[in-house]
Amino acid sequence: MRTLTTALCGALLASSAIGAPFLSLPIDCELGETCFLQNYVDTDPGPGTRDFTCGPLSYDGHKGTDFALPSIATMQAGVNVLASAGGVVVGTRDGMVDRAITNDTLASVEGRECGNGVAIDHGDGWVTQYCHMKQGSISVTKGQTVETGDTLGQVGLSGRTQFPHVHISVRHNGTVIDPFQPGANDTCGASDKTLWADPLAYSPGGLIALGFTTAIPSFDQVKSGQIAQTTLPPNAPALVLYAYGFGSRAGDRLDITINGPANRVVAQSVDLDKTQAQYFRAIGKRTPAGGWQPGTYTGTATLYRDQQPLDSQSLTLTVE
């Protein structure tokens, strides 16, 4: 049910901001399962970086919230971007190519960092903007009225981005508003009156995906989501397990293990020594004499922070 939320720019929440929309997810996915929150609004007014919890999941000057997909393959299959609230479309852009930005291509998106996108006016000075959408997918036009949950297009890789996601920014009278903490203050943590219709849990980092391969992959291969294998022959040249994660912090530890039908194949603890938006680590073993024993192999990765498990994933592979 739609109600009014309270939000005042530049002060603690104290009175009702007429017309402030409650927001639904801007992406058609299951948060924490088929998509994840990669970055939040940068709440540090200076050159530093902090998200609304005072954690590092942002970057300097970031003005929105990033809902990310686990792979390029998922993006290519098609995931819809949805209107977070009803309103009138006041701007669109389409036609920009989907490609991860590099230093060599950065100048090509100057002034168009949002990539393909849509802006919606919700009235009373409230506007949401949706960025980095897939080329050719924009399905609304300027002046069109949309309702909460209407499809605007699809998640893409256009503009200034290195991973497929939809960036949603919220503004009130031109001022950036963090939907997790709509009242400007210096405390760490979500406001008790966020703009989300259903409160969204904060994840300080975690695992995106695991995959079995026969060689150590490149990062681009991991991000593609197209190299993981579910079956291998006994004479496969090697057995490798990679773990793809986000939001690492210095001091984190990643335990990666491969267990075979009868015994452990390989295990390793990897120390993560710096804060990274995304990363991967891999372990493996060359084919033993006589080949791999037929049967089921289980790969497991567990991420630890402050000596406590933060996230864990497992998957299986069949040798036949």
Automatic annotation (TrEMBL):
Residues 75-179 form the M23ase beta-sheet core domain. Residues 1-19 form the signal peptide. CDD domains: M23_peptidase. InterPro entries: Cell_wall_metabolism_enzyme, Dup_hybrid_motif, M23ase_b-sheet_dom. GO terms for molecular function: metalloendopeptidase activity. Keywords: Signal. It comes from the Bacteria. PANTHER family: L-ALA--D-GLU ENDOPEPTIDASE, PEPTIDASE-RELATED. This is Peptidase family M23. It comes from Shimia aestuarii. The lineage of its organism: Bacteria, Pseudomonadati, Pseudomonadota, Alphaproteobacteria, Rhodobacterales.
